Amino acid sequence: MKVVNTILGYKDLVLVQDTDMFRFSLDTILLARFVKLNSKTKMIADFGTNNAVIPLIISKYTNAKIVGVEIQKDAFNIALENIKKNNLQSRIEVLNQNIKDFAKSQNHNFDIVICNPPFFKVNEGSNLNEKSELLTPARHETHINLEEIIACAAKCLKQGGRFSIVHRAERFEEILNHFNKYEIKAKNLQFVYSKAGQKAKTVLIDGIYQGNSGITILPPLIAHYDNGEYTKEVLELFED
Fold this sequence. Notes:
Number of helices: 8
Number of strands: 11
CATH topology: Rossmann fold
Strand content: 25-35%
CATH architecture: 3-Layer(aba) Sandwich
Structural class: alpha/beta
Number of domains: 1
Low-confidence stretches: none
CATH superfamily: Vaccinia Virus protein VP39
Largest sheet: 9 strands, mixed
Mean pLDDT: 89
């Protein structure tokens, strides 16, 4: 069932979602705000854009051309609807394509690549009640795995271009290994915790293609107070 929402802190952005499909979460917002934009940013790719939430948010902070790549036809159609509802057709394009096929057609054309990937391997249990088969490709690596995503990012990025990804904290070492293999140097790293005193839940990593060594470890981000409300630091990320 389709529902129409606004995004907390972005009241002028209208967002159509389907309750049977993968919907955006806090990880989506954190990744969108973690991306390092500057005045020289002209071309951005969002791998697995789903309903185009990340391009919608990023469009508030840059005039760059944004290309979303989404393999699922239903999600692609909703992304098109969201772009049209927000009158962003001239700035955001979405392609119904496999990321691997998209990368084959690229030759280091992008300043930034972003990805909120499937968190779980094909045979790995996600401990989630997947009521719809449309959820599986968004949560499990059925169409593309983590290494392939990073290899595709390297194929798309210009020298000095940036790749930003969010993932489960326990896959941090795997991510760094793939970064190094495909000449992406990690530059900024931030672990995200659901509540203070708990283990890290996710990690945000920003890297530069063919960049120099040297990484900045950012302060940990606590998502919720003990009462379940968002922390001040998280709410600041929702501010337009």
